[in-house]
Design brief:
The structure holds two protein chains of two kinds. Chain A has six helices and six strands. In chain A, helix 2 packs across helix 6 (203-219) and helix 4 (100-109) crosses helix 5 (111-120). Chain A is elongated and about 70 Å long. Chain A has a domain at 24-132 and 163-182 and 202-219: Rossmann fold (3-Layer(aba) Sandwich). Chain A has a six-stranded mixed beta sheet. Chain A is an alpha/beta fold. Chain A has helices at 2-19, 58-71, 80-86, 100-109, 111-120, 203-219, and strands spanning 21-30, 42-47, 76-78, 122-146, 149-170, 175-196. By secondary structure, chain B is α/β, with parallel strands linked by helices. Chain B is built from six helices and eight strands. Chain B is elongated, with a radius of gyration of 23 Å. In chain B, strands 5-2-6-7-8 form a five-stranded mixed beta sheet. Chain B has a three-stranded mixed beta sheet with strand order 1-4-3. Classes of the chains: A alpha/beta, B alpha/beta. The A-B interface holds A 53-55, 57, 85-90, 92-95, 109-113, 116, 131 and B 39, 41-46, 137, 139, 168-170, 187, 190-191, 193-195, 197-198, 221-222.
């Protein structure tokens, strides 16, 4: 029994050392969850990009979409760039609706937008707002190259923080039906003895999994 | 004969290689150059039932922005946006109006041009950029200020207004300064299109002209 615990602890430490440690938390508040999943309807996931000092990374939005699609292949997730280009200029940082009422107004004023949305059979629009930032880097590293070869020596470490919030809009109800937020923090290391060995904490990936799992629980009948 | 031919070929190869190396070294001394390239989607918008002429001044169609380095550590920048500007405006106007006709020359008395409802003339009044090394913010930014005119085929002004556009892109791993500036410029051009498409009918001079041209049938509420 003790041997199993020690083995688990050792494996945990080894995994942590190989990839850097990440701590994360997820909060959610959802209602009107579809009981039988979303059926044939589609979902679109978009990133918020109207803040002056950060952009929600397109690859994070893509990661969440892939997480949902791989978790339940019956859910059709529309690609962000494809959707934004299809509905240009209505989902650009300057023009994107901030409230579902703005979207309703847009569909009334521009029937062509309403028709196109209806043809996609989109039931949920999910907005993701947030970013991953890197901070607190310390340490130093020296690299040199000469006729006989080259190498580096030193140690560097930095921390990364991810903070994202997903807001779910339901078209059939014309209402916001949920908010899911996630935070993740991790420390990465880079020791170098001749060769630098990066031990990167998968902060953004952990945040993606956290938010993706909660969205899957909301959208899928299998979870 | 064969040996001398081989040596001549080798010499030619070496000369080409030396020229290439020299060219690369000289290019490294020049400004960082970006020829803006991107895809601009047509707008999803109710078309206005109008025939619009468009005139791109040579200064606009070949627009480029040069910023000389202030210090030895900085590099000079040359951003060529003319081709992308024309591409974006052509796509946008064709999606906004029933018919778009390129003009043969700048509208004015005596200038022979096709008959249209009005002629649109865009100009870049100002372009600025910011790099992370200058601002310490991990974002590449581009600002463009346009001077836009709507005139009759005779060159008489209908409306004249200025319009800002802004594009930014965050720093990314393995992304060069040039590709980041290109992406920020493409975002600025998309923003220009979005701003124009959503504000055109609200420009005071344009509103009056629309009411005169289309009458009460056109109530635009963007």
């Amino acid at each position: 029994m003790i041997t199993d615990s020690v083995r688990a602890l050792l494996l945990g430490c080894l995994a942590c050392m190989a990839s850097g440690c990440v701590t994360s938390s997820v909060d959610q508040m959802v209602f009107n969850k579809p009981k039988q999943g979303i059926g044939n309807a589609s979902v679109v996931i978009l990133g918020r990009r109207h803040a002056s000092d950060y952009d929600t990374e397109p690859d994070f939005v893509e990661c969440v979409g892939e997480h949902i699609a791989s978790g339940d292949d019956s859910i059709q997730v529309i690609g962000e760039l494809e959707f934004i280009n299809d509905f240009y200029p209505w989902f650009e940082p300057r023009t994107a609706p901030l409230q579902i009422a703005d979207l309703e107004r847009l569909m009334q004023n521009q029937p062509v937008v309403a028709e196109r949305l209806a043809s996609l059979n989109t039931q949920y629009m999910i907005w993701i707002d947030g970013s991953t930032i890197r901070n607190d880097s310390t340490g130093s590293m020296t690299c040199a190259i000469g006729p006989g070869g080259g190498g580096c020596f030193g140690f560097g470490t930095w921390s990364s923080d991810a903070k994202y919030e997903a807001t779910i809009w339901d078209f059939s109800e014309s209402a916001e039906v949920g908010r899911i937020s996630t935070t993740a923090t991790g420390q990465s290391y880079m020791p170098a003895v001749v060769i630098p060995i990066p031990i990167i904490a998968p902060v953004q990936g952990t945040a993606c999994d956290g938010i993706g799992d909660q969205l899957l629980q909301f959208l899928s009948s299998q979870y | 004969m064969s040996a001398s031919m081989t040596s001549v070929h080798e010499f030619a190869k070496l000369a080409r290689l030396a020229a290439l190396v020299l060219f690369t070294l000289l290019a490294a001394c020049g400004p960082a150059e970006v020829v803006v390239k991107g895809e601009f989607p047509p707008p999803t918008i109710e078309k206005l039932p109008l025939t619009i002429g468009v005139w791109y001044d040579p200064g606009f169609a070949n627009h480029e922005f040069y910023d000389e380095a202030k210090t030895k550590q900085d590099s000079s920048w040359l951003v060529k946006s003319g081709q992308a500007q024309v591409q974006m405006w052509d796509t946008l106007l064709n999606g906004m109006f029933e018919r778009v006709v390129p003009m043969a020359g700048r509208p004015g008395p005596g200038q022979m041009n096709p008959t249209v409802d009005a002629v649109f003339i865009p100009e870049v009044a100002e372009l600025q950029y910011a790099l992370p090394v200058q601002t310490n913010v991990k974002i590449y930014e581009i600002w463009i200020r346009y001077h836009l005119q709507l005139v009759t085929t005779g060159g008489d002004p209908i409306a004249e207004w200025s319009m800002p556009a802004y594009g930014k892109t965050p720093t990314a791993f393995l992304q060069s300064d040039q590709s980041a500036v290109n992406l920020a410029a493409v975002m600025a051009l998309r923003d220009a299109g979005a701003n124009f498409a959503t504000s055109f009918t609200r420009v005071p001079g344009v509103q009056v002209w629309l009411q005169e041209t289309l009458g009460s049938q056109q109530e635009v509420t963007l």
